[in-house]
């Protein structure tokens, strides 16, 4: 009720700080950045990003990436495999063990089978997804997929980067041939978001996505990574009278507010408190909310409401869908008052226009929310950007 301004600015800075700390802390290595220094691997690097393997690699410790140069990648690409099949092939090139060049040349008994991310993904049938590493004559090291009839079709070229014992990047002469990894796969583009939502107790939400026309925006974002927070049917049922009161653009913004255009596993949400942009975000500090841990729970806070993740309806990277126990009410549309109601909408115009209306000094706000709002208004966008930039620069220098 009587919060002072200094702690409040600290409160605003902390989520940013935590976001930054956790992104440097949990990502001790960044495969994209490591490979970016080597233009020979630009195609390989590009496909690690496209297939989302890069983020999986960054999340793991004790890993070895068998990189191939652009020429080797073009022979893989000339096979015209689907992106999801390419993902399987490349995941066979990520060994879930650390092999520095020294260890590679000193394998016990001269040969080893090592597990890969393809094997760990569950996409590999049976016991396939292993790579055979064998010390050959004259100090050469051969590599072959276990399902390649004993043929070691690639050899060690050079070490690209070694961060013992977190990540080792090694160049091999060509892409490993593996009939199992190259078998056609159905990709997540086959995922039907509204069908998934309907089956998981979020039919009302799915129907609203379709009737409002924003389902396409959600679908277009799946391939690049999408996290959806769906208020379950019971939750949304009680909210419908207020939903119906919104203009069409406001309805669209409210629904888009329930999606963020990146894949965020529960683990990632738990380890990164901070402000997130949503599909409704249009410009800085608009339609965003704060992810905040509450013990083992993950809460989503807007200035108006705090919702809780109550379950996972689907988690198949690049798409993850969580159930939540409250409708997320953006401050741009709803007032931060004890009995919130839709902001008056004098004209049916773009959400941006409505937002500025709702952003006008809210004299009738009470209690904590008044303090929050005034505090937030005191820190203008420019200052926030400066603060964030200086934090970035600070950490960059460290
Ligand atoms: C390896 O990863 C751990 C955990 O993220 C980190 O603490 C450590 O500093 C990393 N080692 C190197 C050499 O970067
Ligand atoms: C890794 O590095 C790339 C290129 O520098 C950057 O775009 C990306 O955001 C980084 N990823 C993480 C998780 O830090
Ligand atoms: C190496 O070979 C010996 C003798 O064949 C065997 O007993 C041992 O288990 C092997 N070690 C490994 C790591 O395969
Ligand atoms: C690896 O492949 C070589 C060549 O086919 C074979 O001789 C060796 O037994 C294999 N190693 C393992 C551990 O299966
Ligand atoms: C997704 O499923 C819904 C039924 O929930 C269906 O009406 C729609 O046509 C499907 N969309 C696609 C692209 O398959
Ligand atoms: C709908 O909006 C009107 C006018 O702003 C308001 O009086 C009414 O209480 C609202 N109804 C609901 C259910 O929020």
TrEMBL record:
Domain of life assignment: Eukaryota
Principal location class: membrane
Annotated region (Disordered), positions in chain: 338-371
Range of residues in the leader sequence: 1-28
Ranges of residues in domain FAS1: 28-176, 189-328
Transmembrane segments: none
Compartments where found: Cell membrane
Biased composition (Low complexity): 353-364
Keywords assigned: Cell membrane, Glycoprotein, GPI-anchor, Lipoprotein, Membrane, Proteoglycan, Repeat, Signal
One GO location term (cellular component): plasma membrane
One of the GO biological process terms: root development
Membrane topology value: Lipid-anchor; GPI-anchor
PANTHER family in UniProt: FASCICLIN-LIKE ARABINOGALACTAN PROTEIN, FASCICLIN-LIKE ARABINOGALACTAN PROTEIN 2
Function: May be a cell surface adhesion protein.
Family: Belongs to the fasciclin-like AGP family.
Annotated protein name in UniProt: FAS1 domain-containing protein
Organism name: Carya illinoinensis (Pecan)
């Amino acid at each position: 009720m009587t919060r002072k301004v200094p702690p409040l600015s600290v409160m605003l800075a902390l989520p940013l700080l935590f976001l930054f700390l956790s992104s440097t802390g949990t990502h001790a290595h960044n495969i994209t950045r490591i490979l970016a220094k080597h233009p020979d691997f630009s195609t390989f690097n590009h496909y690690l990003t496209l297939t989302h393997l890069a983020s999986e690699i960054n999340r793991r410790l004790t890993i070895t990436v068998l990189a191939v140069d652009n020429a080797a990648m073009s022979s893989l690409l000339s096979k015209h495999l689907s992106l999801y099949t390419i993902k399987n092939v490349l995941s066979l090139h990520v060994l879930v063990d650390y092999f520095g060049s020294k260890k590679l040349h000193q394998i016990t008994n001269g040969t080893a089978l090592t597990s890969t991310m393809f094997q760990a993904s569950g996409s590999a049938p049976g016991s396939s997804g292993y790579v055979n590493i064998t010390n050959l004559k004259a100090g050469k090291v051969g590599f072959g997929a276990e399902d390649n009839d004993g043929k070691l079709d690639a050899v060690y070229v050079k070490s690209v980067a070694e961060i013992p014992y977190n990540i080792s990047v090694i160049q091999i002469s060509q892409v490993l041939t593996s009939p199992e990894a190259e078998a056609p796969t159905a990709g997540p583009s086959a995922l039907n978001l509204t069908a998934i939502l309907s089956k998981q107790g979020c039919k009302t939400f799915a129907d609203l996505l379709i009737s409002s026309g924003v389902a396409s925006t959600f679908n277009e974002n799946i391939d690049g990574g999408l996290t959806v927070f769906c208020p379950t049917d019971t939750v949304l049922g009680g909210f419908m009278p207020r939903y119906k009161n919104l203009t069409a653009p406001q309805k669209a913004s409210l629904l888009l507010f329930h999606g963020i255009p990146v894949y965020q596993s529960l683990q990632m949400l738990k380890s990164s408190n901070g402000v997130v942009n949503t599909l409704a975000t249009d410009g800085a500090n608009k339609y965003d909310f704060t992810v905040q841990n509450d013990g083992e729970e993950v809460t989503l806070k807007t200035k108006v409401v705090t919702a809780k993740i109550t379950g996972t309806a689907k988690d198949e990277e690049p798409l993850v869908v969580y159930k939540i126990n409250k409708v997320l009410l953006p401050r741009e549309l709803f007032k931060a008052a004890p009995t919130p109601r839709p902001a008056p909408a004098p004209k049916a115009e773009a959400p941006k226009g409505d937002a500025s209306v709702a952003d006008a000094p809210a004299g009738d706000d009470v209690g904590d929310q008044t303090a929050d709002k005034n505090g937030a208004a005191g820190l203008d966008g420019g200052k926030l950007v400066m603060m964030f930039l200086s934090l970035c620069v600070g950490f960059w220098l460290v």
